[in-house]
Design goal:
With 477 residues, this protein is α/β, with parallel strands linked by helices. It contains 13 helices and 23 strands. It has a five-stranded parallel sheet, covered by helices on one side. A five-stranded parallel sheet has the order 9-16-10-11-12. Strand 11, helix 7 and strand 12 form a beta-alpha-beta unit. Bound molecules: flavin-adenine dinucleotide.
C-alpha cells in the first residue's frame, strides 16, 4: 500500500516536500489555508525583492548622468504600479506551484488543518465543511508570522508589520523601524531609496547583529546606509508608541541587552513619525492546532523540535522550515532543503541536513551574503585561521557598473587552506555567495578557488582575487 503523507502548510518547505514525496511514489495531500507559496512567495522573499528591485532601478536613474544618460524630470516611484507588478509576479508564481502540484499528482486541499487524534487531520474549508484526512506520515510546515510588541501591537496603519509594509499604497514621509536585523535593514534601504526618511532603532551594538554576519559587513553597511541619510540608533529600544494624534510619537530608551553603553546612548528621546515598522522577529503558527493531541510538545513559544533528519520525537511526524524556529535557520531555501530531506526520510531514506553550509542572502543596498564561519566564530572554536579581504573597487566589473562599495572576505584554515567561511558585501553579493557555498559544502581550499579560472570582466573575480591573496599571490587586491 502507498504511504499516505499529509503535509500541513504550503510554503517553500511544505510544497517542495509534497512534490518530492509524490515523485518518490507516496500518496500526498497538501493542506494550505491561504495562497500556496507561504510567507516567502506572498509576503516575504519575493514581494520584498520586487520592492528592492524597484528601489535599485530608481537609485540608478538618480545616477543616470554618471552613465551618460539624460532624463527629463525627476524619477519617482509609482506605488500603485509597483503593487500591481508585485501582484502579477506573485500570482504567476502561485499558479506555477498549483500546476507543479497537479503535474506531480499531489492533492491540494484549501483549508485550516487541526489535530484531534494521531493519524488523522481535520480540515476546515472556506465553505465551512470539515474534511477528515488520514495519514501514515505527517510533515508539519506551518511556518511563522510577524512578532508584535504587546505594548504597541500592529494596527495596520501607524504600527505596521513587514506584511503591511509590502502593501503600502503610498511612500511614507518618515518611518521608524524597530529592529536592525535582516528584515529591518532591507526595508530601511528600500524605503530610503523610495524617498522615506528612515530611522532604525537596534537594541544591540551593530546593524545585522547576527552571529553569521561578519562584523566588517555590518560596518560597511552602516557606512553605506549613512550615505542614504538613514539614521540608526544602536544600543537603544523603542519603549512606547503613542498614536493618539494621527501620527506616531515614538519613545526610545537605552537597550537592556547592550553591554558597555555610552552615556549618549542612555538619554531617552522621542521621535514623531508617520509609521512604525516593527521587525523584531517571528512567532510560530503552530499554536492552537492540536499538536498536543499527537503527543508532540513544543517549547513555550510554539517552536517544534526536530533532529537533523527532521524527525520529531513522535513517530512518523516530521517538522520543517520556520516551524522549527530560530534553533535551526529560518530561511526559505532552508525550508525547501529540509522539505526534500523530510520527504526522502519519510520514504525510507536516511539523509541529514547540513546546517554548516547554509548561505544567507540579505537584500540591503548594497547586498550582504555569507556562508560558513565568520573569522570571530572560527577563532572562538580555537581554529588556526586567516582572513583575507579584497575590495570590490579593485575589480574591473565593479568599476564598469559603478558599484564600488564593499568587499569579499574568505576565512580559511591556515594548516590546510580549507575554506571555512565566505562573507561578501557589495553588488550582487547574494548571487556571488553560491561559489562560497560550494566551497564550504565540498570542503575545497583557497588553492582550489585560486586555481579556478574566473571569466573577465565579472564580479566573481572578487572571489578569485581574495583566494589569490589567501595563497600569498595577490594580483590586484
Ligand atoms: P511559510 O512560508 O511561513 O509557510 C507556512 C504556510 O503554512 C503558510 O502559507 C500558512 O498559511 C500555512 N499554515 C499555517 N498553519 C496552517 C494550518 N493550520 N492549516 C493550513 N495551513 C496552515 N527567506 C529567504 O531565504 N530569503 C529572503 O530573501 C527572505 N526574505 C524575507 C522577507 C520578509 C519580509 C519575510 C517576512 C521573510 C523573508 N524570508 C526570506 C523568510 C522566508 O519567507 C521563510 O523562511 C519561509 O517562508 C519559511 O517557509 P515555511 O514553508 O517554513 O513557512
Amino acid at each position: 500500500m502507498r504511504n499516505r503523507i499529509a503535509i500541513l502548510g504550503g510554503g517553500p518547505g511544505g510544497y517542495v516536500a509534497a512534490v518530492r514525496a509524490a515523485q518518490l511514489g507516496a500518496e500526498v495531500t497538501l493542506i494550505e489555508k491561504e495562497a500556496l507559496g507561504g510567507t516567502c512567495l506572498n509576503r516575504g522573499c519575493i514581494p520584498s525583492k520586487i520592492f528592492q528591485t524597484t528601489a535599485g532601478i530608481l537609485n540608478r536613474f538618480r545616477r543616470c548622468q554618471e552613465f551618460g544618460i539624460q532624463v527629463e524630470g525627476t524619477p519617482r516611484v509609482d506605488m500603485p504600479a509597483l503593487l500591481a507588478r508585485k501582484e502579477k509576479v506573485v500570482s504567476t508564481q502561485v499558479r506555477g506551484i498549483e500546476s507543479l502540484l497537479k503535474h506531480n499528482g499531489v492533492a491540494h486541499v484549501k483549508g485550516t488543518g487541526t489535530f484531534k487524534t494521531y493519524g488523522s487531520m481535520n480540515v476546515l474549508t472556506a465553505d465551512g465543511d470539515t474534511l477528515r484526512i488520514g495519514w501514515d506520515t505527517l510533515i508539519i510546515s506551518t511556518g511563522s508570522e510577524p512578532l508584535e510588541i504587546p505594548a504597541f501591537p500592529f494596527d495596520g496603519e501607524s504600527v505596521i508589520s513587514s506584511t503591511d509594509a509590502l502593501n503600502l499604497d503610498a511612500v511614507p514621509e518618515s518611518m521608524v523601524i524597530v529592529g536592525g536585523g535582516v528584515i529591518g535593514c532591507e526595508f530601511a534601504c528600500i524605503l530610503a531609496d523610495l524617498g522615506t526618511r528612515v530611522t532604525v532603532v537596534e537594541a544591540l551594538d551593530r546593524l545585522l547583529p547576527l552571529p553569521s554576519v561578519d562584523a566588517g559587513c555590518s560596518k560597511v553597511l552602516q557606512r553605506e546606509m549613512k550615505k542614504k541619510k538613514i539614521t540608526f540608533l544602536l544600543n537603544r529600544t523603542v519603549t512606547a508608541v503613542d498614536t493618539s494624534n494621527g501620527s506616531a510619537l515614538v519613545s526610545i530608551g537605552p537597550s537592556p541587552f547592550a553591554e558597555n553603553i555610552k552615556a549618549k546612548d542612555h538619554s531617552p528621546m522621542q521621535i514623531e513619525t508617520d509609521k512604525v515598522l516593527v521587525s523584531i522577529g517571528r512567532r510560530s503558527n503552530s499554536k492552537g492546532i492540536g499538536l498536543e493531541n499527537l503527543g508532540l510538545e513544543t517549547d513555550n513559544k510554539g517552536w517544534i523540535a526536530a533532529d537533523d533528519r527532521l524527525r520529531t520525537p513522535v513517530e512518523n511526524v516530521f517538522a520543517i522550515g520556520d516551524a522549527l524556529g530560530p534553533e535551526k535557520v529560518m530561511l526559505a531555501h532552508v525550508a525547501s532543503a529540509e522539505g526534500v530531506i523530510a520527504a526522502e526520510n519519510a520514504l525510507g531514506g536516511d539523509r541529514k541536513m547540513n546546517y554548516d553550509a547554509v548561505p544567507g542572502a540579505i537584500y540591503t543596498l548594497p547586498e550582504v551574503a555569507d556562508v560558513g564561519l565568520t573569522e570571530h566564530q572560527a577563532r572562538e572554536k580555537g581554529l588556526d585561521v586567516r582572513a583575507d579581504a579584497v575590495l570590490f573597487r579593485t575589480i574591473g566589473k565593479a568599476q564598469v557598473i559603478g558599484e564600488l562599495a564593499g568587499e569579499a572576505k574568505i576565512v580559511s584554515d591556515v594548516q590546510n587552506g580549507r575554506v571555512l567561511g565566505v562573507h561578501i558585501i557589495g553588488p550582487h553579493a547574494t548571487d556571488l555567495i553560491a561559489e562560497g557555498t560550494l566551497a564550504v559544502t565540498t570542503g575545497c581550499t583557497v588553492q582550489d578557488l585560486a586555481a579556478t579560472i574566473h571569466a573577465h570582466p565579472t564580479l566573481s573575480e572578487v572571489t578569485m582575487e581574495t583566494a589569490f591573496k589567501a595563497v600569498g599571490r595577490a594580483l590586484h587586491g
